[in-house]
Q: What sequence folds into this?
Protein backbone atom coordinates (compact mmCIF):
# COMPACT_ATOMS: atom_id res chain seq x y z
CA UNK A 1 0.00 0.00 0.00
CA UNK A 2 1.26 3.48 -0.88
CA UNK A 3 2.26 5.48 2.21
CA UNK A 4 0.52 8.84 2.35
CA UNK A 5 2.75 11.88 2.51
CA UNK A 6 2.17 14.91 4.70
CA UNK A 7 0.75 17.47 2.28
CA UNK A 8 1.53 21.17 2.55
CA UNK A 9 -0.36 23.96 0.83
CA UNK A 10 2.05 26.92 0.55
CA UNK A 11 0.80 30.46 -0.12
CA UNK A 12 3.24 33.32 -0.75
CA UNK A 13 2.38 37.01 -0.81
CA UNK A 14 2.31 37.67 -4.57
CA UNK A 15 5.65 39.47 -4.95
CA UNK A 16 8.97 38.17 -6.24
CA UNK A 17 10.84 38.57 -2.96
CA UNK A 18 8.17 36.46 -1.22
CA UNK A 19 7.67 33.77 -3.89
CA UNK A 20 11.37 32.82 -4.28
CA UNK A 21 12.12 32.10 -0.59
CA UNK A 22 8.84 30.24 0.00
CA UNK A 23 9.60 28.17 -3.09
CA UNK A 24 12.98 27.49 -1.56
CA UNK A 25 11.44 26.38 1.73
CA UNK A 26 8.97 24.22 -0.20
CA UNK A 27 11.81 22.53 -2.03
CA UNK A 28 13.60 21.82 1.28
CA UNK A 29 10.39 20.27 2.60
CA UNK A 30 9.94 18.15 -0.53
CA UNK A 31 13.47 16.85 0.11
CA UNK A 32 12.25 15.83 3.57
CA UNK A 33 9.37 13.77 2.24
CA UNK A 34 6.54 16.29 2.06
CA UNK A 35 4.21 16.84 -0.83
CA UNK A 36 3.76 20.54 -1.65
CA UNK A 37 1.00 22.35 -3.50
CA UNK A 38 2.29 25.85 -4.19
CA UNK A 39 -0.39 28.48 -4.72
CA UNK A 40 0.52 31.47 -6.84
CA UNK A 41 -1.87 34.07 -8.15
CA UNK A 42 -2.87 33.34 -11.77
CA UNK A 43 -0.88 36.36 -12.87
CA UNK A 44 2.33 35.26 -11.15
CA UNK A 45 1.80 31.60 -12.03
CA UNK A 46 1.88 32.51 -15.70
CA UNK A 47 5.04 34.55 -15.23
CA UNK A 48 6.79 31.73 -13.37
CA UNK A 49 5.74 29.16 -15.98
CA UNK A 50 6.81 31.38 -18.88
CA UNK A 51 10.15 32.21 -17.27
CA UNK A 52 11.29 28.75 -16.31
CA UNK A 53 13.87 26.89 -18.32
CA UNK A 54 14.13 23.14 -18.99
CA UNK A 55 16.30 22.59 -15.95
CA UNK A 56 13.91 24.18 -13.46
CA UNK A 57 11.01 22.49 -15.23
CA UNK A 58 12.37 19.09 -14.31
CA UNK A 59 13.54 20.08 -10.85
CA UNK A 60 10.31 21.64 -9.73
CA UNK A 61 8.16 18.79 -10.90
CA UNK A 62 7.85 17.62 -7.34
CA UNK A 63 6.04 20.81 -6.40
CA UNK A 64 2.51 21.04 -7.72
CA UNK A 65 2.00 24.66 -8.75
CA UNK A 66 -1.62 25.79 -8.71
CA UNK A 67 -2.93 29.22 -9.75
CA UNK A 68 -5.81 31.10 -8.14
CA UNK A 69 -7.18 34.52 -9.03
CA UNK A 70 -5.87 37.59 -7.19
CA UNK A 71 -9.14 39.43 -7.79
CA UNK A 72 -7.72 42.01 -10.20
CA UNK A 73 -8.46 42.30 -13.89
CA UNK A 74 -5.69 41.17 -16.22
CA UNK A 75 -4.81 44.74 -17.20
CA UNK A 76 -4.64 46.10 -13.66
CA UNK A 77 -1.30 47.13 -12.14
CA UNK A 78 0.11 44.50 -9.74
CA UNK A 79 2.83 46.94 -8.66
CA UNK A 80 0.10 48.97 -6.94
CA UNK A 81 0.52 47.05 -3.69
CA UNK A 82 -2.43 48.72 -1.98
CA UNK A 83 -4.88 47.75 -4.68
CA UNK A 84 -3.37 44.28 -4.97
CA UNK A 85 -3.52 43.67 -1.22
CA UNK A 86 -7.16 44.75 -1.03
CA UNK A 87 -8.19 42.56 -3.95
CA UNK A 88 -6.37 39.55 -2.56
CA UNK A 89 -8.06 39.82 0.82
CA UNK A 90 -11.44 40.09 -0.86
CA UNK A 91 -11.14 37.19 -3.28
CA UNK A 92 -8.43 34.75 -2.32
CA UNK A 93 -9.79 33.35 0.99
CA UNK A 94 -12.76 31.77 -0.79
CA UNK A 95 -10.58 30.47 -3.63
CA UNK A 96 -8.13 28.93 -1.19
CA UNK A 97 -10.92 27.26 0.73
CA UNK A 98 -12.29 25.78 -2.50
CA UNK A 99 -8.84 24.55 -3.47
CA UNK A 100 -8.25 22.80 -0.14
CA UNK A 101 -11.72 21.26 -0.28
CA UNK A 102 -11.07 20.01 -3.80
CA UNK A 103 -7.72 18.47 -2.83
CA UNK A 104 -9.31 16.76 0.16
CA UNK A 105 -12.13 15.32 -1.92
CA UNK A 106 -9.77 13.85 -4.48
CA UNK A 107 -7.90 10.58 -4.29
CA UNK A 108 -4.49 11.23 -2.82
CA UNK A 109 -2.82 12.97 0.06
CA UNK A 110 -5.10 15.22 2.12
CA UNK A 111 -3.89 18.63 3.21
CA UNK A 112 -2.18 18.34 6.58
CA UNK A 113 -0.33 21.66 6.74
CA UNK A 114 -0.71 25.21 5.52
CA UNK A 115 2.31 27.50 5.29
CA UNK A 116 1.22 31.03 4.46
CA UNK A 117 3.16 34.25 4.19
CA UNK A 118 2.79 36.21 7.42
CA UNK A 119 1.29 39.03 5.34
CA UNK A 120 -1.45 36.67 4.14
CA UNK A 121 -3.31 36.47 7.44
CA UNK A 122 -6.47 35.56 5.50
CA UNK A 123 -4.84 32.25 4.55
CA UNK A 124 -4.04 31.50 8.19
CA UNK A 125 -7.72 32.19 8.97
CA UNK A 126 -8.84 29.79 6.26
CA UNK A 127 -6.45 27.13 7.55
CA UNK A 128 -7.78 27.43 11.10
CA UNK A 129 -11.40 27.46 9.95
CA UNK A 130 -10.78 24.27 7.96
CA UNK A 131 -9.06 22.67 10.94
CA UNK A 132 -5.81 22.01 9.15
CA UNK A 133 -3.52 20.17 11.57
CA UNK A 134 -0.40 22.33 11.23
CA UNK A 135 -0.66 26.05 10.54
CA UNK A 136 2.55 27.94 9.90
CA UNK A 137 3.30 31.58 9.12
CA UNK A 138 6.30 32.29 6.92
CA UNK A 139 8.26 35.51 7.31
CA UNK A 140 10.55 36.09 4.31
CA UNK A 141 12.33 39.15 5.73
CA UNK A 142 14.46 40.04 8.75
CA UNK A 143 13.51 39.55 12.38
CA UNK A 144 14.13 43.28 12.79
CA UNK A 145 11.46 44.09 10.20
CA UNK A 146 9.02 41.82 12.04
CA UNK A 147 9.87 43.57 15.30
CA UNK A 148 9.10 46.96 13.70
CA UNK A 149 5.67 45.71 12.62
CA UNK A 150 5.00 44.12 16.02
CA UNK A 151 5.91 47.49 17.58
CA UNK A 152 3.10 49.37 15.79
CA UNK A 153 0.89 49.62 18.93
CA UNK A 154 3.88 51.02 20.86
CA UNK A 155 4.59 53.60 18.14
CA UNK A 156 0.93 54.70 18.23
CA UNK A 157 0.97 54.90 22.03
CA UNK A 158 4.14 56.99 22.01
CA UNK A 159 2.63 59.40 19.49
CA UNK A 160 5.26 58.56 16.86
CA UNK A 161 2.60 57.51 14.38
CA UNK A 162 -1.13 58.16 14.01
CA UNK A 163 -3.51 55.25 14.27
CA UNK A 164 -3.81 55.26 10.47
CA UNK A 165 -0.02 54.81 10.23
CA UNK A 166 0.86 58.41 9.29
CA UNK A 167 4.18 59.44 10.76
CA UNK A 168 3.69 62.21 13.36
CA UNK A 169 7.26 62.58 14.62
CA UNK A 170 10.19 62.55 12.27
CA UNK A 171 13.03 61.04 14.28
CA UNK A 172 15.49 58.15 14.39
CA UNK A 173 14.33 54.96 16.08
CA UNK A 174 16.44 52.13 17.47
CA UNK A 175 14.40 49.29 18.88
CA UNK A 176 17.27 47.90 20.95
CA UNK A 177 21.03 48.42 21.20
CA UNK A 178 22.82 46.82 18.25
CA UNK A 179 19.66 46.70 16.20
CA UNK A 180 19.46 48.72 13.00
CA UNK A 181 18.36 52.31 13.35
CA UNK A 182 15.79 53.85 11.06
CA UNK A 183 14.08 57.11 10.31
CA UNK A 184 10.41 56.99 11.24
CA UNK A 185 9.68 58.36 7.75
CA UNK A 186 11.32 55.20 6.37
CA UNK A 187 9.02 52.88 8.35
CA UNK A 188 8.08 49.93 6.16
CA UNK A 189 4.49 51.03 5.49
CA UNK A 190 5.40 54.73 5.33
CA UNK A 191 7.73 54.24 2.37
CA UNK A 192 5.40 52.28 0.11
CA UNK A 193 3.53 54.20 -2.61
CA UNK A 194 1.10 57.08 -2.08
CA UNK A 195 -0.90 57.91 1.06
CA UNK A 196 -3.76 55.54 0.19
CA UNK A 197 -1.36 52.66 -0.42
CA UNK A 198 0.45 53.40 2.82
CA UNK A 199 -2.81 53.23 4.76
CA UNK A 200 -3.83 49.95 3.15
CA UNK A 201 -0.44 48.37 3.83
CA UNK A 202 -0.54 49.66 7.40
CA UNK A 203 -3.98 48.09 7.92
CA UNK A 204 -2.71 44.86 6.42
CA UNK A 205 0.17 44.84 8.91
CA UNK A 206 -2.15 45.50 11.83
CA UNK A 207 -4.35 42.67 10.65
CA UNK A 208 -1.29 40.40 10.35
CA UNK A 209 -0.30 41.26 13.92
CA UNK A 210 -3.60 39.64 14.96
CA UNK A 211 -3.76 36.74 12.49
CA UNK A 212 -0.17 35.64 13.16
CA UNK A 213 -1.46 34.36 16.51
CA UNK A 214 -3.45 31.76 14.59
CA UNK A 215 -0.23 30.09 13.48
CA UNK A 216 1.40 27.36 15.56
CA UNK A 217 4.86 28.37 14.37
CA UNK A 218 6.37 31.34 12.59
CA UNK A 219 9.38 30.44 10.47
CA UNK A 220 11.72 33.22 9.52
CA UNK A 221 14.23 33.41 6.68
CA UNK A 222 17.05 34.62 8.87
CA UNK A 223 19.59 33.23 11.32
CA UNK A 224 19.88 33.98 15.03
CA UNK A 225 23.57 34.77 14.59
CA UNK A 226 22.82 37.43 11.97
CA UNK A 227 20.42 39.31 14.19
CA UNK A 228 20.71 38.10 17.80
CA UNK A 229 19.27 41.30 19.29
CA UNK A 230 16.20 41.25 17.08
CA UNK A 231 15.44 37.63 17.90
CA UNK A 232 15.99 38.34 21.59
CA UNK A 233 13.58 41.29 21.34
CA UNK A 234 10.98 39.06 19.71
CA UNK A 235 11.31 36.35 22.34
CA UNK A 236 9.22 37.88 25.16
CA UNK A 237 6.55 38.71 22.62
CA UNK A 238 6.36 35.13 21.47
CA UNK A 239 4.00 34.35 24.32
CA UNK A 240 1.71 37.30 23.91
CA UNK A 241 1.85 38.37 20.33
CA UNK A 242 3.10 35.60 18.12
CA UNK A 243 3.72 31.88 18.04
CA UNK A 244 7.21 30.39 18.37
CA UNK A 245 9.52 32.25 16.05
CA UNK A 246 11.96 29.96 14.31
CA UNK A 247 15.00 31.23 12.41
CA UNK A 248 15.68 28.65 9.70
CA UNK A 249 17.69 30.75 7.25
CA UNK A 250 19.36 31.81 5.19
CA UNK A 251 17.17 29.72 2.91
CA UNK A 252 19.32 29.40 -0.16
CA UNK A 253 19.29 27.23 -3.21
CA UNK A 254 22.53 25.62 -2.10
CA UNK A 255 21.14 22.12 -2.52
CA UNK A 256 20.36 22.93 -6.14
CA UNK A 257 23.70 24.38 -7.21
CA UNK A 258 22.66 27.88 -6.39
CA UNK A 259 19.68 27.86 -8.68
CA UNK A 260 16.58 29.42 -7.18
CA UNK A 261 13.09 28.74 -8.52
CA UNK A 262 10.05 30.94 -8.97
CA UNK A 263 11.57 33.80 -10.98
CA UNK A 264 9.09 36.08 -12.75
CA UNK A 265 11.57 36.78 -15.59
CA UNK A 266 13.58 34.34 -17.69
CA UNK A 267 17.16 34.14 -16.46
CA UNK A 268 19.94 35.02 -18.85
CA UNK A 269 22.69 32.58 -17.89
CA UNK A 270 25.13 33.73 -20.58
CA UNK A 271 26.37 36.28 -18.04
CA UNK A 272 28.11 33.41 -16.22
CA UNK A 273 30.33 32.81 -19.26
CA UNK A 274 31.09 36.53 -19.36
CA UNK A 275 31.94 36.43 -15.65
CA UNK A 276 34.29 33.48 -16.32
CA UNK A 277 36.33 35.78 -18.54
CA UNK A 278 36.80 38.50 -15.90
CA UNK A 279 39.58 38.65 -13.31
CA UNK A 280 38.86 37.47 -9.76
CA UNK A 281 37.13 40.09 -7.56
CA UNK A 282 36.94 42.65 -10.35
CA UNK A 283 33.27 43.01 -11.32
CA UNK A 284 30.72 45.41 -9.85
CA UNK A 285 27.33 43.66 -9.79
CA UNK A 286 24.34 46.03 -9.87
CA UNK A 287 20.80 44.81 -9.26
CA UNK A 288 17.72 46.38 -7.71
CA UNK A 289 15.36 43.43 -7.33
CA UNK A 290 11.90 43.15 -8.80
CA UNK A 291 10.17 46.44 -7.89
CA UNK A 292 12.61 49.33 -7.94
CA UNK A 293 12.03 51.93 -10.64
CA UNK A 294 14.21 54.90 -11.63
CA UNK A 295 13.56 58.31 -13.02
CA UNK A 296 15.49 59.04 -16.16
CA UNK A 297 18.03 61.42 -14.56
CA UNK A 298 18.97 58.96 -11.86
CA UNK A 299 19.16 56.08 -14.31
CA UNK A 300 21.52 58.01 -16.57
CA UNK A 301 23.63 59.13 -13.62
CA UNK A 302 24.10 55.52 -12.58
CA UNK A 303 24.99 54.56 -16.15
CA UNK A 304 27.63 57.30 -16.30
CA UNK A 305 28.99 56.32 -12.87
CA UNK A 306 29.62 52.78 -14.05
CA UNK A 307 31.42 54.11 -17.10
CA UNK A 308 33.45 56.45 -14.89
CA UNK A 309 34.44 53.67 -12.49
CA UNK A 310 36.41 52.07 -15.33
CA UNK A 311 35.84 48.58 -13.93
CA UNK A 312 33.96 45.65 -15.44
CA UNK A 313 30.31 45.63 -14.43
CA UNK A 314 27.26 43.41 -14.70
CA UNK A 315 24.11 45.53 -14.51
CA UNK A 316 20.59 44.14 -14.28
CA UNK A 317 18.12 46.36 -16.07
CA UNK A 318 14.77 44.59 -15.91
CA UNK A 319 12.82 44.37 -19.19
CA UNK A 320 10.13 46.76 -17.86
CA UNK A 321 12.81 49.40 -17.20
CA UNK A 322 14.83 49.00 -20.38
CA UNK A 323 11.61 49.39 -22.40
CA UNK A 324 10.97 52.83 -20.96
CA UNK A 325 14.29 54.39 -19.90
CA UNK A 326 16.94 55.44 -22.43
CA UNK A 327 20.71 55.17 -21.87
CA UNK A 328 22.93 58.23 -22.35
CA UNK A 329 23.80 58.98 -25.99
CA UNK A 330 26.33 56.47 -27.40
CA UNK A 331 26.58 54.74 -24.01
CA UNK A 332 26.57 51.07 -25.01
CA UNK A 333 29.15 51.67 -27.77
CA UNK A 334 31.47 53.49 -25.38
CA UNK A 335 31.17 50.84 -22.67
CA UNK A 336 31.67 47.97 -25.12
CA UNK A 337 32.56 44.65 -23.53
CA UNK A 338 33.56 46.28 -20.25
CA UNK A 339 29.98 46.24 -19.08
CA UNK A 340 27.28 43.62 -19.52
CA UNK A 341 23.67 44.77 -19.21
CA UNK A 342 21.01 42.06 -19.00
CA UNK A 343 17.36 41.79 -18.01
CA UNK A 344 17.43 39.13 -15.25
CA UNK A 345 20.08 36.67 -14.11
CA UNK A 346 20.42 33.68 -11.79
CA UNK A 347 21.46 36.05 -9.02
CA UNK A 348 22.60 33.47 -6.50
CA UNK A 349 24.97 31.97 -9.05
CA UNK A 350 26.22 35.41 -10.02
CA UNK A 351 26.95 36.38 -6.42
CA UNK A 352 28.78 33.09 -5.89
CA UNK A 353 31.06 33.77 -8.87
CA UNK A 354 34.69 34.51 -7.92
CA UNK A 355 34.92 37.48 -10.29
CA UNK A 356 32.32 39.51 -8.34
CA UNK A 357 33.95 42.28 -6.29
CA UNK A 358 30.96 44.11 -4.81
CA UNK A 359 27.18 44.30 -4.98
CA UNK A 360 25.42 47.59 -5.62
CA UNK A 361 22.03 46.61 -4.25
CA UNK A 362 18.60 47.94 -3.35
CA UNK A 363 18.98 45.86 -0.15
CA UNK A 364 15.91 43.67 -0.48
CA UNK A 365 16.21 41.02 2.23
CA UNK A 366 16.78 38.16 -0.21
CA UNK A 367 19.48 40.08 -2.04
CA UNK A 368 21.01 41.04 1.30
CA UNK A 369 21.15 37.41 2.45
CA UNK A 370 22.47 36.28 -0.93
CA UNK A 371 25.27 38.86 -0.82
CA UNK A 372 26.05 38.05 2.82
CA UNK A 373 26.13 34.29 2.15
CA UNK A 374 28.68 34.85 -0.58
CA UNK A 375 30.90 37.22 1.38
CA UNK A 376 30.38 40.12 -1.03
CA UNK A 377 30.69 43.74 0.22
CA UNK A 378 27.79 46.07 -0.56
CA UNK A 379 26.98 49.52 -1.82
CA UNK A 380 23.51 50.33 -0.57
CA UNK A 381 20.79 52.02 -2.56
CA UNK A 382 17.52 51.28 -0.73
CA UNK A 383 14.24 52.25 -2.32
CA UNK A 384 11.34 51.30 -0.06
CA UNK A 385 9.77 48.97 2.55
CA UNK A 386 12.31 47.12 4.76
CA UNK A 387 15.28 48.05 2.54
CA UNK A 388 16.38 50.97 4.76
CA UNK A 389 16.48 48.64 7.74
CA UNK A 390 18.58 46.16 5.77
CA UNK A 391 20.89 48.98 4.72
CA UNK A 392 21.40 49.78 8.39
CA UNK A 393 22.31 46.13 9.10
CA UNK A 394 24.82 46.20 6.23
CA UNK A 395 26.44 49.55 7.03
CA UNK A 396 26.04 50.05 10.80
CA UNK A 397 25.79 46.61 12.39
CA UNK A 398 27.70 44.17 10.16
CA UNK A 399 29.84 46.91 8.57
CA UNK A 400 30.10 45.08 5.25
CA UNK A 401 29.11 47.97 3.01
CA UNK A 402 28.64 51.67 2.46
CA UNK A 403 25.65 53.95 1.94
CA UNK A 404 25.29 56.03 -1.19
CA UNK A 405 24.31 59.57 -0.25
CA UNK A 406 22.01 61.83 -2.25
CA UNK A 407 23.14 65.35 -3.18
CA UNK A 408 21.12 68.51 -2.53
CA UNK A 409 19.03 67.80 -5.65
CA UNK A 410 18.05 64.40 -4.27
CA UNK A 411 20.22 62.54 -6.78
CA UNK A 412 22.94 60.00 -6.11
CA UNK A 413 25.59 61.58 -8.29
CA UNK A 414 28.05 59.69 -10.47
CA UNK A 415 31.05 60.95 -8.49
CA UNK A 416 29.47 59.68 -5.24
CA UNK A 417 28.95 56.24 -6.77
CA UNK A 418 32.47 56.11 -8.23
CA UNK A 419 34.05 57.23 -4.93
CA UNK A 420 32.14 54.74 -2.82
CA UNK A 421 33.00 51.92 -5.23
CA UNK A 422 36.67 52.82 -4.82
CA UNK A 423 36.32 53.06 -1.06
CA UNK A 424 34.57 49.71 -0.57
CA UNK A 425 37.03 47.94 -2.85
CA UNK A 426 40.26 49.55 -1.71
CA UNK A 427 39.58 49.31 2.03
CA UNK A 428 40.07 45.57 2.47
CA UNK A 429 38.37 45.58 5.86
CA UNK A 430 34.98 45.45 4.08
CA UNK A 431 35.70 42.21 2.26
CA UNK A 432 37.39 40.78 5.37
CA UNK A 433 34.27 41.41 7.48
CA UNK A 434 32.07 40.17 4.64
CA UNK A 435 34.02 36.87 4.57
CA UNK A 436 33.57 36.45 8.31
CA UNK A 437 29.85 37.17 8.06
CA UNK A 438 29.56 34.63 5.25
CA UNK A 439 31.06 31.97 7.52
CA UNK A 440 28.64 32.87 10.30
CA UNK A 441 25.67 32.69 7.94
CA UNK A 442 26.66 29.46 6.25
CA UNK A 443 27.55 27.62 9.48
CA UNK A 444 23.91 28.06 10.44
CA UNK A 445 22.53 26.03 7.57
CA UNK A 446 25.22 23.34 7.57
CA UNK A 447 24.58 20.01 9.29
CA UNK A 448 24.42 20.69 13.03
CA UNK A 449 24.21 24.49 12.63
CA UNK A 450 21.56 26.34 14.60
CA UNK A 451 19.16 27.10 11.73
CA UNK A 452 19.66 23.55 10.46
CA UNK A 453 18.75 22.02 13.84
CA UNK A 454 15.73 24.28 14.20
CA UNK A 455 14.62 23.33 10.69
CA UNK A 456 14.95 19.62 11.47
CA UNK A 457 12.86 20.01 14.63
CA UNK A 458 10.33 21.91 12.59
CA UNK A 459 10.17 19.08 10.04
CA UNK A 460 9.61 16.51 12.79
CA UNK A 461 6.85 18.61 14.32
CA UNK A 462 5.21 19.08 10.91
CA UNK A 463 5.21 15.33 10.36
CA UNK A 464 4.02 14.42 13.85
N1 LIG B 1 16.83 38.09 -8.56
C1 LIG B 1 17.18 37.22 -9.57
N2 LIG B 1 17.71 37.75 -10.70
C2 LIG B 1 17.94 39.07 -10.87
C3 LIG B 1 17.59 39.95 -9.82
C4 LIG B 1 17.04 39.42 -8.67
O1 LIG B 1 17.01 36.01 -9.46
O2 LIG B 1 18.44 39.45 -11.94
C5 LIG B 1 16.25 37.51 -7.34
C6 LIG B 1 17.19 37.66 -6.16
O3 LIG B 1 18.12 36.61 -6.18
C7 LIG B 1 16.24 37.64 -4.98
C8 LIG B 1 14.94 38.20 -5.56
O4 LIG B 1 15.07 38.20 -6.98
O5 LIG B 1 16.06 36.32 -4.54
C9 LIG B 1 14.65 39.62 -5.15
O6 LIG B 1 14.28 39.64 -3.82
P1 LIG B 1 14.68 40.83 -2.87
O7 LIG B 1 14.09 40.55 -1.53
O8 LIG B 1 16.14 41.04 -2.88
O9 LIG B 1 14.04 42.12 -3.54
P2 LIG B 1 12.57 42.51 -4.05
O10 LIG B 1 12.48 42.09 -5.46
O11 LIG B 1 11.58 41.82 -3.16
O12 LIG B 1 12.55 44.00 -3.91
A:
Amino acid sequence: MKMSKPHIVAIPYPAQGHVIPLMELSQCLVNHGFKVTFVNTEFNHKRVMNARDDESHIRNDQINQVPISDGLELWEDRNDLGKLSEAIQRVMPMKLEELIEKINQEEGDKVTCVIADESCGWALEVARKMQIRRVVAFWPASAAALEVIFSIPKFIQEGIIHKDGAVLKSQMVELAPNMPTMKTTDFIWASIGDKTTQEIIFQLMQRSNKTVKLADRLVCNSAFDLEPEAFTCLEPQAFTLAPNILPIGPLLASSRLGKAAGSFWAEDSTCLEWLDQQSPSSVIYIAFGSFTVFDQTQFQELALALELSNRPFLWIVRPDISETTPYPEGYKERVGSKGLIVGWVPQQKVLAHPSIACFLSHCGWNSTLEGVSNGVPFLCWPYFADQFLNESYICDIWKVGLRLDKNESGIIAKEEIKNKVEQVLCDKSYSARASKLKELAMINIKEGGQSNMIFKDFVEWMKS
